[in-house]
């Protein structure tokens, strides 16, 4: 049996915190994720969508897109096959 192409990491917790309103309807959020390797933290800027729930969904979607792009870039750097879910 071949080993899987991808290791899965279980995230224990993801926090999204609004940091500031930047004018022109732009909001800055901090995304903090805890994994078995430690903590990862980075900012995400979005357009205000009018409610806290919609803003948080937009931040999480942006974070997921960033994570997918980051994983693809790392695979390419390591010379690994591309992963298409």
What does the radius of gyration come to? 16 Å
Strand percentage lies at 25-35%
Distance between the termini: 20 Å
Q: How many strand elements?
A: 3
Global structural class:
alpha+beta
Helix content bin:
25-40%
- Integer tally of domains: 1
Provide the spatial order of strands within the biggest beta sheet. Answer: 1-2-3
Ranges where pLDDT stays below 50 over 5 or more residues in a row are none
What is the overall silhouette? elongated
Count of helix runs: 1
Quote the average pLDDT.
85
What about the largest sheet? 3 strands, antiparallel
What would your notes on this structure say?
By secondary structure, the chain is an alpha+beta fold. It has one domain (13-78). It has 1 helix and 3 strands; from the N terminus they run βββα. The protein has a 3-stranded antiparallel β-sheet with strand order 1-2-3.
Topology:
Elements: E1 13-21, E2 26-35, E3 38-47, H1 52-78
Key phrases:
alpha+beta; 85 residues; 32% helix
How would you briefly describe this protein structure?
This protein has one helix at about 50-80; strands at about 15-20, 25-35, 40-45.
